[in-house]
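Running this now, will post back.
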Amino acid sequence: MKMNETLFHIGQYKVLLGGALGAVSLVVLAFVFMGVLRSGMDRRARRDPQQRSRLYSARLLVKYILWVVVLVGCMAMLQIDVTFLLAGSAAVLVALSLGIQQTFNDVFSGIILLVEGTIRVGDVLELGPLVGRVKDIHLRTSTIYSHEGMNVIVPNRRFINENVVNWSHNALETRFSLSLGVAYGSNEEQVSNLLLASANVHPHVITDDDAHPVSVRLINFGASTLDFEILFWSRNAFHIEQTKSEIRFTILKHLRNAGIMTLAPRPTAAITPLTEQVL
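Update: finished.
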């Protein structure tokens, strides 16, 4: 068989044997290239785990660009007139454009995420009420593994258009806070020492680094309470709610043994209501 022999026709176009073989070869080479690239990056990531997220983002960008090039190359080898197809489908594209604006927004947002690297695989994020670890970042959507053990599919535009708290960005250590109120008349120094002791005994609280100390503040004279806040650092951001709960149990035990009454802090007209927050 000759390379210029016609295999079949697609409308007015004829697919030649040489063009079909070239297109198939191009696709095979693309798969081989991506396999070699992935193996090389995996080896690099094992040697330097801190670069894993950057390598993952770079591989995704190369993958998307490569397949665009392969698609254009295959169409050229098959002698398909791209301009004719675009002109013929212009009316359809206009009709569909209104319905796929959000999709283009998601895709563009995904490209921004991959290029900037502000959000990476493995980061712990707070996106509105959702808190979880980034499992995958794709071109249109990303997957977040939540505290409840569910994989949540999030459109990429939310990471660009909404306020996102990245608990893992630029640091392994993150500071958290707990607040509580005790009855007036309580010994404030004793309360402070008991709060410090309650946090220091928890294994997920950093206690051996002077740059990340555990501290206690008297933050407000409430309507019926002395309002305290305990600040601590942890590297276990993903399971921090469990850590907070265990510290609360320890605090209650210590205060109860000391005969100190705890009360919920009450906001006043001049004071913003107390909340537990990541600082």
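Confidence is low (pLDDT under 50) at residues 265-279. More later if anyone needs it.
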